[in-house]
Amino acid sequence: MSTQSPRYFHHLNYSLGNEDSTVEWAILPEHGGRVLSVAGCGSRVLPLVARQPSHVVCADVSTSQLRVTELRVEAARALEHADYLRFFGYPPDVGTQEVRRRLFDRIALSDDTRAYWLDVFDDQAWESILYDGRWERTFRKLSRVNGVLTRERGRSLFDARTVEEHAAYLRDRFPRKAWLLTLLLLGNPIVFNLMLYKGDFPRKNVQGTPFQFYRRAFDKLFAQGPSRENFFLQIVFFGALRFAQGNPIECRPDVYERIRQALPNVSIEYRLGDILEVAHADGEAFDFVSLSDVPSYFAPPREQTYLQDLRPALSPGARVVLRYYLRRPERTVRTGYRDITASFAEPIANEKVGVYDIEVLAHDGASASER
Q: Is residue 142 located within the same domain as residue 57?
């Protein structure tokens, strides 16, 4: 975001994460060179590290998001897989306060970040921070409303362990009318603006009503298979992760092992500021850029120029991953880019949040060093 970015982005908005980073993980090639990514809460960054790039720059306009990203990265560096899950509070073993305190002492952090997290953990008696972000806290509240309306019949969907059981439950027992009422009440820009975005909700320009948008998104997620394998659906129905099968990709044992193997050889930096400005700070080209859904919040003239602003910081063939939430930037100048989204149709179709329109571009122009 620009230096005049909305207020929403300057706090701890995400602690678990609101995106399925399996998509970016699938798009970044092995040994992918220099990577620039919105930091978020670090759950986007760690899967990228698993691909063994040479350098990762994590950019964010929120100091808190950089702090939680550093915590995730350094926890992965210091902790074995089971302890990483316990420290953050992922199932199946969400850890205890005493275990969390002991594990924290093993994580090497910068002085400012260590002081920040000591204050946070002391304030909440070493409970998990996994649901401390504004997004997570909002969905914990919304899940209670969902629970009142869909009741046990809604939550029992997560007992299905196979595709066949899941499809049969959706067809025969799932409280469809109560669920649609939930979407009608909660899939409302006014609700999200009041509870989460504080007036900074994207200016919707996709077709259809918000209710139609969210209904399509959740129908897609339900069609993917057992809901217990989806972290976002668990948040929507329980307000927390209950089933380890749905843990985010960095928690998969195979991916986590790759993260730990890659970390000693990957240089990681944390930069506070507008990601498009950070892109030009060192004068070196990036081979991969993950912008998250930042472009959905751009206004004119930036929504027209942001891809051109980014071009001088890209190497030839660099991949740029864009997510759009409710809004695509209008009249964006795309000179120097090719749309390669179709090459990643499978991971995009299997993405676990469902509300993002994902686009992948390849840069055709000269690198920064050739300009």
A: no
